[in-house]
Design brief:
The chain has 4 helices and 14 strands. The strands form 2 sheets. A 12-stranded antiparallel beta sheet has the order 5-4-3-2-1-14-13-10-9-8-7-6. A two-stranded antiparallel ribbon has the order 11-12.
């Protein structure tokens, strides 16, 4: 009789574990997501930020785009102002990443440049812009990637971090390491490289983003970053 009771108990226990475990994993994942959002300043901060300006060096994917590059973007309209070097010439480009078209192109003195001359480099510029923005906004970008439902604890540099795997960030799979205490992403493993993520800054309106990504092979640095709720419309129309 006792043996039958034990069998029934174990069956019940196995059933309970199988039914409860998915919800525990989901709650665990949600808890990490909440920590990441709180560290950034909250989803409402990101949603209410209409304009972002940043200057970035490193991680240039295309030879036609060299040196430090500056972007000013309107998140809602897709309008972007680029200041940097294209085809070895310093230019100011006004474009829209949604329509994927240039509207104006100027040399460093403000003289008009033929849009046709730079037509072939436009897709590269848009892709570089997209990469730069996604890296800068890593905490938000990673929450849009496919996150695994299970994390594991790691102690790195005497700090307890939660390791979480992801797929489809910049088309790649990897891992992030999130501080248990602050919710900041401290490390990014991507494309066979490990980047230390640091220099989190309030870029305006309480929105906090990382500005330095350093691996043993290279680094990405956002030298100037600012967010705005208002912007002069001329920035997206003229030199």
């Amino acid at each position: 009789m006792n043996q039958k009771k034990n069998i029934v108990y174990y069956i019940y226990l196995i059933f309970a574990v199988l039914t409860i475990s998915p919800s525990i994993l989901l709650a665990q994942s949600n808890s990490i997501s909440d920590k990441i959002w709180n560290a950034v300043g909250g989803k409402s901060k990101w949603d209410s930020t209409k304009y972002i300006m940043f200057t970035v060096s490193g991680n240039s994917k295309y030879p036609a785009i060299s040196g430090a590059r500056k972007f000013l973007l309107d998140k809602q309209s897709g309008n972007v102002r680029f200041e940097g070097t294209l085809n070895n010439e310093n230019v100011v480009a006004i474009l829209n990443v949604q329509s994927q078209k240039f509207s104006h192109l100027y040399d460093e003195n403000g003289a008009d440049i033929s849009l046709q001359e730079y037509k072939e480099v436009l897709p590269n510029l848009i892709d570089q812009y997209s990469i730069d923005l996604k890296v800068l906004s890593l905490p938000i970008s990673i929450l849009s990637a496919n996150l695994s439902g299970q994390s594991s604890s790691k102690i790195i540099n005497a700090e307890k971090l939660q390791k979480l795997d992801f797929s489809n960030f910049l088309g790649l799979s990897g891992s992030i390491y999130v501080s248990d205490e602050s919710g900041f992403i401290k490390r990014l493993d991507l494309n066979n490289k490990s980047y230390l993520v640091s220099n989190y800054k309030d870029i305006g309106n309480g929105l906090v983003l990382p500005t330095n990504f350093k691996s043993s092979a290279d680094s990405i640095t956002y030298e100037k970053v600012a967010s705005f709720t208002e912007m002069e419309p001329e920035k997206f129309k003229e030199f």
